[in-house]
Amino acid sequence: MIYLRSNKINETTPLVFLIKSEVVERKFTMSVDIDIKKLLESGAHFGHKTSRWHPKMAPYIHSKRQDSHIIDLTKTVEALESVLPELTKAVAKGGKVLFVGTKKQIRPIIKEVAEATGQPYVTERWIGGTLTNVKTINQQVKKLHNLEKRMETGELEKRYSKLEVQRFAEEIEALNEKYGGVKDLSGKPAAVVVIDVVAERNAVKEAKTLGIPVLALVDTNADPSEIDYVIPANDDAIKSVQLILGYIGEAVKEGLKNVKKVEDKK
Known about the structure:
Strand order of the largest sheet: 7-6-8-9-10
Order of helices and strands: EHEHEEEHEHEHHHEHEEH
Radius of gyration: 21 Å
Number of domains: 2
Low-confidence stretches: 1-28
Strand content: 5-15%
Oligomer: single chain
CATH architecture of the largest domain: 3-Layer(aba) Sandwich
């Protein structure tokens, strides 16, 4: 594992300094390899316009370039190296990780990572009460499961006309759009992963109400104070989000392997 360390970063420091400064070897028990060069290439360091910045993000900012802030990628690496082992532990104990990202360009990435790791997700509009009003959400999920089962067994086709069956199919599609990502979530997730805390403020609020740890990509325009695990990074660029979610997905998979090992020993 390569870790970059420097105490001499200022506003005039070239961006390449982030990957060419003093390099020291550091040992980690974490199996996920964080590559700062890939973070740089993905554009993870590009923040918002300086006029839109949030003062509490100051510790995570490297410098200014023209009218935009540049995120200190050494802080991004440190954050990932700190949180990913914790995420792996939580999953190894049987916990679920809820992925949340409803911005159009982010939805496919969230869904791909969540489905690849068997985790719940929300990619459409966050429905109020998804975490805090479990009773109402469970009613809708139960309805969805019931309709899907009846459709799969052919019960609906036997009992109703083609037009009515089509209406049931449309209802199933609508319910899946709202609840499909969380229909197999039972109980509270062990953690919530959020992409863009400004856009997903309601998800963050519900998680905090229930005491669920929030791990989030936080850009320079957001308030990091409500986030348990801040990963400073560009939360708009597809490559940046894809890369970091990939690291998170690897940590989840590592946890799942450990769950299987425990089950095999029983």
